[in-house]
Amino acid sequence: MSRIQAIFDRLKQQRRKALIPFFTAGDPNPALTVPLMHTLVEAGADIIELGVPFSDPMADGPTIQRASERALKHHVGLHHVLDMVAEFRSSDAVTPIVLMGYGNPIEAMGWGTFAQRCAEAGVDGVLTVDFPPEESHEAFAHLTKYGIDPIFLLAPTSTDARVARVAKQARGYVYYVSLKGVTGAGHLDLAAIEQKIPQLRKHINLPIGVGFGIRDAVTALAVAKLCDGVVVGSRIVQEIENSTEQNVVANVSKLVKELRQAVDKA
């Protein structure tokens, strides 16, 4: 059983929802990435989505784009991110880690090498924003060979055919993008999410996490009532951006604890 499945099984038994925070590896400083990962767990994270810095992101809004820019100024690349996961894993064998990013750095490394490195480091899932299911058979075959979950995005515009296709290929959980736009957008439509999730469940047996546009405890609670997991990215990255290196760990911890308390009310 994968770590991701084990977490969702445990939460289901406890009648709780997953809290899945995201931040970009190397932001604000590479030395703070692993401490921030441990802080997220201590504050209540069930799964961590760790962003791989990339210079030309297509799904990320300005907040996460700036996070990648800050990390890239420190020359943080895919090799470094995998090393960070390995360091984290040396003292945490339980919390699932999902790498989230774009295909170019992985293509440069090679999917076979990447999958092997992920397995060695302790990565549990990979979400590649620009690799749709139609184009990812060979790439994700390397991941499944090593027991790593390929995770796919679905959107409000996803057709039934696309949903069914994702349902066949996805492992771990499915990430539903709650709005038409980039990360950090502020026009979350809860009614639309409430309408869409039952349509997705007709095809998908995996847990469904919802992200994009969740910015506070109120929206985290509202979304948690509709799905299996709540993904919060831009709000956490914004907290990192607005903090100093001296208080960033404490500030992120406070925010995630607030989100945890809200999600647990669902």
Q: How do the helices and strands line up, and which of them pair or pack?
A:
Blueprint (H helix, E strand, L loop, with lengths): L2 H12 L3 E7 L5 H14 L4 E4 L10 H12 L4 H12 L7 E5 L1 H7 L1 H11 L3 E4 L8 H9 L3 E3 L1 E2 L5 H10 L4 E4 L12 H12 L6 E4 L5 H8 L4 E4 L1 H8 L6 H16 L3
Parallel strand pairs: 1-2, 1-9, 2-3, 3-4, 4-5, 6-7, 7-8, 8-9
Helix pairs in contact: 2-4, 2-12, 4-6, 5-6, 6-7, 10-12
Structure commentary:
- With 266 residues, this protein is of the alpha/beta class.
- The chain is globular, with a radius of gyration of 17 Å.
- The longest helix has 16 residues.
- 49% of the residues lie in helices and 14% in strands.
- The two termini are 26 Å apart.
- Helix 6 runs parallel beside helix 7.
- The chain has twelve helices and nine strands.
- The protein has a nine-stranded parallel beta sheet.
- It has a single domain, classed as Alpha-Beta Barrel (TIM Barrel).
Supply the key terms:
266 residues; alpha/beta; 14% strand; TIM Barrel; 12 helices
Helix/strand structural class: alpha/beta
Named at the architecture level, the CATH assignment is Alpha-Beta Barrel
Radius of gyration: 17 Å
Strand content: 5-15%
**Strand neighbour order, sheet with most strands:** 5-4-3-2-1-9-8-7-6
Q: How much helix, percentage-wise, in residues?
A: 40-55%
Total of DSSP H or I helical runs spanning 4+ residues? 12
Instruction: Give the name of the CATH superfamily.
Output: Aldolase class I
CATH fold call: TIM Barrel
User: Termini separation (Å)?
Assistant: 26 Å
On the 0 to 100 scale, the average pLDDT is 93
